[in-house]
Each structure stands twice: as structure tokens, then as C-alpha cells.
Write a structure and sequence with these properties.
By secondary structure, this protein is an alpha/beta fold. The chain has helices at 9-13, 23-36, 48-56, 59-62, 76-79, 82-92, 115-120, 131-140, 157-170, 184-193, 206-212, 218-224, 235-250, 270-279, 309-312, 328-332, 364-371, 373-377, and strands spanning 41-47, 67-74, 97-101, 125-127, 145-152, 175-182, 201-205, 228-231, 256-258, 280-287, 291-300. The chain has a 6-stranded mixed sheet, sandwiched between helices. Strands 2-1-7-8-9 form a 5-stranded parallel sheet. Bound molecules: iron/sulfur cluster.
Length: 378
């Protein structure tokens, strides 16, 4: 495991899910953090799932004044570019196309509509729980063209790659994917080189590292002298990750540590990485609201061009702007909180979202709306 220290002694001692939600352990960890903190620090959890745990269990409110948690760009729905949604709506409106998508994507606003409205207007939009369902739909509808809206981080990329691989193996000629895949380490790098960056330490996303391993985060620690702890998704996981980061910050250290050692290894899931590499290649990628981040996405390789909806269909290259009122770009970079947005809970609600972070089950705005009703009252 080279230089990586797996320090999750408390997590290692626990076996059952409820132990990771134990209030007494949580209070003890919060007290230990409070004892250590001597000055203000800004920590970022990357993943939207971690944000929801923090809001749901009030972890941010257990921390001492000055220790601030900001929320990162790790919600796949939130960072899918407007242009991708517009292209999906364009494809769905064609009579020969069945557009297959995860349910979360249906209500994400494009520049003028969303897939739910397209479906209500007669488009054949179907919800799938895995990409292989889209392959099955292609198999049983040989006279239609099936397009799978393939979004997500490194966690969903192997299954999407497997769907393209399977379709190619079967010789399906009516299956393609509109891919918008993003990668975590280049996004952290982009945050760290930004002149506006406030973040001093990161909780890396445990599920992404389950696939990719922790090793690729070492370059960030080395290049920016920034502490990174791979964290899990339960309240105790996150408090422990915060404690590990605070120990490093207060000690003037920067290391990569693995709190989520029960799931994450240094190398990750090698077969999953292999299928990703066979089907996808790294490319520049636009992130919604943030812009293009170099080498931060995945696109289908030339060998899979016949399964790339962007190449199969005559899709116009679009450039569209976010609604000016939506500050999601600043929320996703940890510069603002959802409650700083003048539209929060007013013009923008889960029923009538203006931006993706209010729609997605991992979106920061949805987390504040759901778990901080008093922020709405204020
Ligand atoms: S509350 Fe709505 S408008 Fe404001 S940043 Fe969040 S998604 Fe955008």
C-alpha cells in the first residue's frame, strides 16, 4: 500500500450499520475535534451523498465555530452540462428514438425545458435503474434507436462501459449513449488552482475510490500540500474523516489517509478500471456552471464511435448559459452555501427547480431544503 496510512481504527472496530450512527460515538468524536481546533479551517466534502449525511445528521452543527464544511461538485446530476440536457431533449423528441435515463435526470432543467416535459409532450422517455436495461430495450425494439443518457462519476462509468461493451459484442446497431462522465481528481485540482479557492483540506468520495483506489489522490497531496482523507457516508465515517483532517491541519501536515478502509483499497477495483479504459478515454469536459476542466471527463473511444450518440446523430454543438439567478456554480465550488442564494426556497424549490442542485437526490440545495427548514423560515 506504499505511503498510504489506513488510520481508521475506530471504523475498523465497528461491524454494524447502526454503530456508524451511534450518537455517543458521534459526540465523543465531535468533542475530540473541538479540543484540537485552534483556528479557522475550511474543509470540503466532495460527494453529494456525504453532503446529505452532513445535513441530515446535523454534523456541521456539531463542529466548533470556525471549522467550516463547504460542499463540493460531487453530485453527478448537478454538474451535467445544460447542453447535454438540451441534446437529450432534442434526441427524445425524434420519433425513432427511445431516450433511456436515470430517474433523477428527468426533472433537471435544460436551457428551456426538461425531459419530464418532453415525455409529457409525447417523447418516448423511459427510466432505467441500470444501463444494461437500456441494452435490453434495444434488443427488444430493433426498429427503434435507443439512446442511454450516461452520466456520472467514476462510480457509474464501469457499468456504462459494460453496456457499450455488451452492445458491441451482440452487434446491436440501434444502441448508443449520450455520455457525460466526469472525474474527481481533475476537479479537485481545478479548485486548488483557482484564485478564489478557500478549501484547505478534502474528504474524498469513498465510493469513487472503491472503484479507482486512493492512489490517484497522492499527486494532489504532493503538488498542493493539501490533506486528503478518503471518507465514507455514515455520520461516524464523516466525523472520523473530519477528525483525521483536523489532526493534519493543526499539525501542519499533508497526507493522504483512508478512513473508508473497509471498502477502499489503494488500487481499487482493477476489472472495473479495465472495462472503463477499454471503452472510454480521458477528455476535456464541461461541468455545469463551472466550465471546461481539462482532462476531467470520459468519452467513448474511436472503436466505440458507433455507440456514441454525439457521433451517430447530427447533434448541433450548443453553448447555452445558466439562468443568471442560479448561483449553483459558486455552491459547487464551495464559495457559497445554498442559503446564500436569493432564489433558495423562493423561486427555486424541489417542485420548481431553477438549478440541478435543487433537483438531484445528491444536490446541496435539495439537502438544505429538506433538512434545514428553519433556513427557509429565516
Ligand atoms: S437554490 Fe436553486 S437557484 Fe439557487 S443555487 Fe440552488 S439550484 Fe440554483
Amino acid at each position: 500500500m506504499r505511503s498510504l496510512r489506513a488510520t481508521a481504527t475506530l471504523a475498523h472496530a465497528m461491524k454494524y450499520l447502526d454503530e456508524y450512527r451511534d450518537q455517543r460515538i458521534a459526540r465523543n468524536l465531535a468533542a475530540e475535534i473541538a479540543q484540537l481546533v485552534t483556528r479557522p479551517w475550511v474543509l470540503m466534502e466532495i460527494c453529494g451523498g456525504q453532503t446529505h449525511t452532513i445535513m441530515r445528521y446535523g454534523i456541521d452543527e456539531m463542529l466548533p465555530a470556525g471549522l467550516e464544511l463547504v460542499h463540493g461538485p460531487g453530485c453527478p446530476v448537478c454538474v451535467t452540462p445544460l447542453e447535454t440536457i438540451d441534446k437529450a431533449i432534442n434526441l427524445a423528441s425524434r420519433t425513432e428514438v427511445i431516450l433511456v435515463s436515470y430517474g433523477d435526470m428527468l426533472r433537471v432543467p435544460g436551457s428551456h425545458s426538461d425531459l419530464m416535459r418532453a415525455k409529457a409532450n409525447g417523447a418516448d422517455v423511459r427510466i432505467a435503474y441500470s444501463p444494461i436495461e437500456a441494452v435490453k430495450i434495444a434488443r427488444s425494439n430493433p426498429d427503434r434507436k435507443i439512446v442511454f443518457l450516461a452520466i456520472g462519476f467514476e462510480t457509474t462509468a464501469p457499468a456504462n462501459a459494460m453496456a457499450a461493451w455488451q452492445a458491441r459484442r451482440e452487434g446491436l446497431t440501434n444502441f448508443s449513449m449520450l455520455a457525460s462522465h466526469v472525474l474527481v481528481p481533475p476537479a479537485i485540482r481545478a479548485l486548488l488552482v483557482s484564485e478564489t479557492n478557500r478549501v484547505q483540506a478534502f474528504i474524498a468520495p469513498g465510493h469513487v475510490c472503491t472503484v479507482m483506489g486512493c492512489g490517484e489522490y497522492e499527486a494532489l497531496v504532493r503538488d498542493f500540500h493539501v490533506p486528503i482523507v478518503v471518507g465514507g457516508f455514515e455520520p461516524i465515517d464523516l466525523l472520523e474523516a473530519i477528525l483525521m483532517l483536523v489532526k493534519q491541519l493543526e499539525g501542519g501536515e499533508s497526507r493522504l489517509e483512508n478512513q473508508y478502509a473497509r471498502s477502499v483499497s489503494y488500487q481499487g477495483n482493477l476489472p472495473a478500471q479495465q472495462i472503463m479504459q477499454e471503452v472510454f478515454e480521458v477528455a476535456d469536459q464541461k461541468w455545469r456552471g463551472i466550465g471546461v476542466i481539462p482532462q476531467s471527463g470520459l468519452r467513448l473511444r474511436q472503436e466505440y464511435a458507433a455507440f456514441d450518440a454525439s457521433r451517430v446523430f447530427d447533434l448541433e454543438e450548443l453553448v447555452v448559459d445558466e439562468p443568471a439567478e442560479c448561483i449553483s456554480a459558486q455552491v459547487l465550488q464551495g464559495l457559497k452555501k445554498p442559503t446564500d442564494c436569493p432564489m433558495f426556497g423562493m423561486g427555486c424549490t424541489p417542485e420548481n427547480p431553477m438549478g440541478a442542485p435543487m433537483v438531484s437526490s445528491e444536490g446541496a440545495c435539495a439537502a438544505y431544503y429538506r433538512y434545514r427548514p428553519r433556513a427557509l423560515a429565516g
